[in-house]
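Sample A.
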Amino acid sequence: MSIRACLTLLAASLLVVGLGALPAVAAQGRVGLDQVLDDFVSAVKADEAIPADKKKAAEAIVTSLRGDVDGKSSIITEVLQVLHPEYKEALAQLGEENLGAAIATLAKLREAKSPYLAADASYFLSRAYLLDERFEDAMPLLADLQGKWNGQTGYGGEVLFLQGVAEVALLRHQEATQSLEQFLTLYPEAPERMRVGAFRQLEQLKLYAEGTLSDVSLRMEFSRRKLALEDTGDDTRGQQEKIVEILAKLIKEAEERECNCKGGGSGQGQSKKQGKGGEGESQAQGEGQGQGGSSGGGSKGIDTDTVKRLQRGGPRSPWSNLRDKERDPVYSAIKEKFPARYQQLIEQYYKSFGDDSEG
């Protein structure tokens, strides 16, 4: 499952506040959901600033959802919306993806005196940041929810899942693998859509290999997001340089394979034509010269001949017409969103395969 698919899942889940029940007894120091709810109910009852009618409404919500498998984890959120109208409005704005307004209000409520309101606001603020692709801003909030506010949130499983999603987007593959595996282990009763999403993301992480086109794709997504946020700092420039480095390496390797393949083909052709007279010798010699011209000195990455092959007015390889290329997400992303330099490098990489097939 891609990052965007995970974010789509996240946006869809905003329509339903309750995301499923979590284990009553959590592992590794995590406070169980039932204990969190018991402490929350006691805190509401003890708060003299809460009017009696709102306490009664809160009690009704707890009674109604406590036995609901799908709604149990949302009890705190539902009660807080009754107690704090501005919080209810912020969640409505988030559900409508009015992220600017929602983030402004949630950031304010994160500093609330009530630890339950601060924790719940932090959770939904982290989701707003994720939807806005501000993964760096979401990470400290998710850390707080697993630390100082561990006993004030009913969204332990969701927090761990979202942390894994953010870590994938930040290219922290090892950390993301650990977070998602821990989520699947600790929260077997989490919503199926989240568990499936975590499993698929883990499968993709297993297939990841540095220096491949899949690596380029992830780095390009990171760069695109950073540029959209107008962040042109060292991280962004570093990733862009790495993209060009990987593509240049892939191109060089492809061209070397092409030269080796054509060199072997030329030798075979010459041996077959021996003894056939002047015509055979002439043709073989011409082929040998042609091959020597393309391979002399070996491949040096992005050379003059390669650049010439990129000119749109020149002969086109049948590879250019293959559907696979058009469907390739890396090529499509470069063509639509990235500088012409990237597109030329990818065109060159694909062209090397086209020339190989023609030989």
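Sample B.
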Amino acid sequence: MKTVLRFFVWALRHRGLEIALLQGTTLIALSASAGPALLLDQWLKVLLCLVGSVLTVAHVFTLNDWADAGFDREDPSKAGHFQRFGLTRPHVLFGSCALGAAGLFACALSSDTGGFWGLGVIACGWIYSHPKIYAKGIPVASSACHALGQIPHFMLGSAVVEAISLRAVSLALVFSLIFAAGHLVQETIDSPADSRAGILTNAAVFGPKKALLASFVFFTAAFVQLIWASHSGSAAPASVFGALFYPVYALSFFYLLASNRSKLDRRRLEAHRAVYRAVFAGLGGYLLFVNLSQPTV
């Protein structure tokens, strides 16, 4: 029992904020698929969907920590390693698999296709992290896992009320591009430690600046996709939001490049990450507010 408690304390302290933030994808999917009245009418399925989303995402993160146990020692900034909580790798693997199984069960109960989408989230996590595959150490494939993983994550929320639709796919692509871009920035930040550990990330293989430029392309594509979805009626009106906040992101990016011509500075990379996270957190809040303000689909 003490080991179980330590596992949950470690997971909450080390990954709790990231797990919570990623629920924005599911919440936006739920709000985009139906008005608040219908969501309240389906409250049990909505609750099961959210529980399933939290648990499957927690499984993906903790599985990654289990797989990276040997590599994390190379990065002094990763202070939340599970050994410091008295946990071993088998403890973390068992706990992670228990989270995944419980999450998949909740997903399956949330809708007819919920189990399928939950399994998709878990599969992307295993392909990315498991040592036998370890797509994290395969350039391009690592980004593909992040991009593809957001599609079933979004569809999990959308499936509670509606079947697969163009609207859901259009919005899922926005989040797919955002997370692929964010992953490239994180790889750029971690590239010195990853290179020392022999992890072949995009930034380690192609160079940090090229990975950062690729993130700019993906973020820009996400804004374009969002505006297209807005104009096609697939998303809440977001053209004004994009027009106002894309320049904020772009200015942060070009300032970062201009101030780091020879070598990218970690502190400035983290400041840039904070800027785009704030921009997209604002976007998520805006979409939730607009969607939930509408009484009907």
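B remarks: Residues 2-292 form a domain with the Farnesyl Diphosphate Synthase fold (CATH 1.10.600). The radius of gyration is 19 Å.
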